[in-house]
Design brief:
- By secondary structure, this protein is of the alpha/beta class.
- The protein has a single domain (about 15-315), classed as TIM Barrel (Alpha-Beta Barrel), CATH 3.20.20.
- About 45% of the residues lie in helices and about 10% in strands.
- It contains 13 helices and eight strands.
- Strands 7-6-5-4-3-2-1-8 form an eight-stranded parallel sheet.
- The longest helix has 18 residues, at about 230-250.
């Protein structure tokens, strides 16, 4: 899979676009309730949605216990996320489904690149002092460049939350723009860290500024905050993506991360993307899940679709 044809070139900072943003909390909650209260898709339609979800997963390991062996096993799972017997039972072998990417710390980029050679699965590296983003600015720039040099095709950067909390939008724009320049040809996902921004207005404004500065994706969370991805912040962020597209003609991808662990969760997010942004965003070039345990639950649901029984989680280990 190539992302070469999807890129946000950035625009000049437009303070008016930020100042005009207002989020109606009760309207957001009512819209999200329409997703949570509807009936879940079933049978072959559910299986089709879940296979789409698998192709959009950034299969992730971000642990102090990461080793080259663990990362190589994760990469093997990324190349064959649905076991061969289940693929045969579903009749999907010819689809050659893989996950959207493998996401690791910088130290494991080289291992992942080698393990994924020939697969066209990109390696994403978390960067810029992940998860807190409080390393020196120079250190964060060097970290991006080092991961790109090691073979990472995608860089997940974290913003300085203080710029948002202090409403210093120009500083946020300048920071993200510098990170984008350091990425070179690698695609950049900006992690907004929504759980640490206090209000949905801040989430919306930070999203807009990050896109103006050239983010190719905006991402909810590091997965390590007290509150990570939710449907409420997702709705706010995807509407900012829609607004940015209307204002500039540039398309930006979206990645919810953290706390998405069930097949039902995945379908809710996919349906929200379909309804708010349209089918052209329902692919790995424009949408990703940041997840680790999600794939195991999806495999269990697909296994149930075939056999009528739920298998144990330990039959679907990811590494």
């Amino acid at each position: 899979m190539s992302l070469d044809d999807v890129s946000n070139p950035s625009v000049d900072f437009q303070p008016k676009w930020v100042d005009e943003i207002r989020v109606n909390l009760s309207a957001v909650q009512r819209r999200v309730a329409t997703l949570k209260n509807r009936r879940t898709v079933k049978k072959q339609w559910q299986a089709a949605w879940l296979l789409k979800a698998v192709s959009c997963i950034d299969l992730t390991t971000l642990s102090g216990q990461d080793t080259p062996g663990k990362v190589r096993r994760l990469c093997a799972k990324a190349k064959t996320p649905i076991n061969h017997d289940l693929q045969a039972a579903l009749g999907i072998e010819e689809l050659a489904i893989t996950t959207g990417a493998v996401c690791v710390y910088h130290e494991m980029v080289g291992t992942a690149v080698e393990a994924l050679k020939g697969s066209n699965i990109p390696v994403a590296a978390v960067s810029t002092g992940f998860p807190a983003g409080l390393s020196s600015f120079e250190t964060r720039l060097l970290e991006i460049k080092a991961s790109v040099a090691a073979g990472a095709k995608e860089i997940d950067i974290v913003i300085t939350r203080g710029h948002v909390l202090n409403a210093n939008w120009q500083a946020l724009y300048d920071e993200v723009k510098a990170f984008k320049e350091a990425c070179g040809t690698a695609h950049m996902k900006s992690i907004i860290s929504t759980g640490e921004l206090s209000t949905l207005n801040n989430v919306a404004r930070a999203s807009m500024v990050a896109m103006m500065a050239g983010s190719d994706f905006i991402k909810t969370s590091t997965g390590m905050e007290a509150t990570n991805a939710t449907l409420e912040v997702t709705l706010v962020m995807v509407r900012m993506i829609r607004n940015y597209n209307e204002l500039t003609g540039h398309r930006v991808g979206f990645k919810p991360a953290g706390g998405i662990g069930t097949a039902k969760d995945a379908i809710n997010y996919l349906i929200l993307i379909k309804e708010e942004l349209g089918d052209s965003w329902l692919n790995p070039k424009m949408f990703r899940f940041g997840a680790s345990s999600l794939l195991a639950d999806i495999e269990r649901q697909l296994d149930h679709h075939v056999t009528g029984r739920y298998s144990a989680f330990n039959r679907h280990a990811i590494s």
